[in-house]
Backbone:
């Protein structure tokens, strides 16, 4: 296979796929709609051994060296350790959480992208299938981009462009892939603090090299978490989440499932009122969840999205057009309680191996069959995990 495989989306799924294909001496090109403008995705994610262990040989790193490159506190000699009392959802044993750690996503993407060809500012506008290939072969695919360019005719195209996948929307019937919004009010905030003694004085001993992620609950329903996105000797970048089940049978100003992407930055005053009503918070929660301090944070209203494209539609799409979907484009999990980053990495490694094992990507249909049960279970377990996180089984009845 000499012609590069077009991959849409330079997120974790696409980057892992491209880097693993490179390991197998199969060329690919990543097309990413975002412009390359500084560091993207500078936030923390939890990585499980099930996902990162297969990456080590591909990257040529041992486990310690890998963590020293991507851990949130790597610059200060840490390994991204998580507090022992934090419950990490394993999705019913799908993931080995014994070696889990907090990684900075931007650092991870930089490592995965080494040696990979990425073309920035390429937003998909159209997909043409059944294109006549050079030499008389039929059944090829061409992608058209907003910048007026298009890809050469390809036998295999990968859509790894996330839960809002344009490739999926253009090619799969919308009724089959409705995105579900789970009934939770979730807000995420980010800010930075001076490092060293200033950080220790304000946040106590709760956030340390041995605990880059801590969590607690209030009133058996409100879940609070605080984590480190990145730290160095001068500054610490702090991340927090506030979440609770949506109010039943009444208007909830903190849960707006129909909001637009642009409206994610519109933060209602009621959030600060609810935070003000929290009681008995200990460090670091007392320092982080201060409503007046929070007003200066970069806050986003998160929606907990899930989706699951039917297996038959995935196989039909691939057989009819040569287009393969992966990652969040197929089986998105909610940010809280989900293991979407880990699932994306596993997708990338296993799909590359399926392509490498069968010429022209003919192993994709088998890969779908083998992976689909895991995807379905992952989505189901993530929904259960976010429910358990809030200890709100009674409040949630009738909502899921």
Residues:
């Amino acid at each position: 296979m000499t012609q590069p495989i077009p991959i849409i989306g330079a997120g974790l799924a696409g980057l892992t796929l491209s880097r693993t294909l490179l390991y197998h001496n199969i060329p690919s090109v990543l097309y990413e709609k975002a412009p390359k403008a500084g560091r993207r995705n500078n936030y923390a994610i939890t990585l499980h051994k099930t996902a990162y262990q297969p990456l080590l040989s591909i990257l040529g790193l041992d486990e310690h060296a890998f963590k020293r490159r991507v851990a949130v506190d790597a610059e200060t000699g840490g390994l991204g350790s998580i507090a022992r009392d934090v419950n990490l959802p394993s999705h019913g044993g799908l993931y080995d959480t014994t070696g889990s750690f907090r990684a900075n996503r931007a650092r991870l993407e930089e490592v995965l992208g080494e040696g990979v060809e990425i073309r920035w500012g390429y937003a998909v506008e159209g997909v043409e299938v059944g294109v006549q290939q050079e030499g008389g072969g039929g059944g090829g695919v061409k992608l058209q981009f907003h910048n007026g360019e298009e890809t050469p005719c390809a036998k295999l195209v990968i859509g790894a462009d996330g839960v809002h996948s344009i490739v999926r929307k253009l090619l799969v019937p919308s009724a089959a892939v409705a995105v579900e919004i789970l009934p939770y009010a979730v807000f995420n905030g980010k800010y930075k603090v001076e490092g060293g003694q200033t950080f220790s004085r304000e946040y106590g001993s709760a956030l340390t090299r041995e605990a880059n992620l801590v969590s607690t609950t209030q009133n058996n329903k409100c879940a609070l978490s605080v984590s480190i996105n990145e730290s160095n000797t001068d500054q610490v970048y702090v991340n927090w989440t506030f979440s609770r089940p949506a109010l039943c049978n009444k208007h909830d100003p903190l849960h707006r499932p129909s909001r637009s992407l642009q409206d994610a930055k519109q933060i209602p005053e009621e959030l600060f009122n609810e935070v003000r009503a929290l009681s008995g918070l200990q460090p670091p929660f007392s320092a982080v969840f201060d409503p007046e301090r929070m007003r200066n944070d970069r806050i986003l209203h998160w929606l907990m999205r899930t989706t699951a494209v039917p297996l038959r539609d995935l196989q039909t799409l691939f057989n009819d057009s040569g287009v393969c979907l992966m990652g969040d484009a197929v089986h998105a999990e909610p940010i809280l309680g989900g293991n979407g980053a880990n699932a994306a990495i596993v997708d990338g490694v296993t799909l590359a191996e399926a392509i490498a094992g069968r010429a022209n990507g003919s192993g994709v249909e088998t890969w779908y069959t083998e992976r689909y049960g895991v995807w379905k279970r992952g989505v189901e377990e993530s929904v259960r995990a976010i429910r358990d996180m809030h200890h709100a089984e009674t409040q949630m009845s009738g909502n899921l």
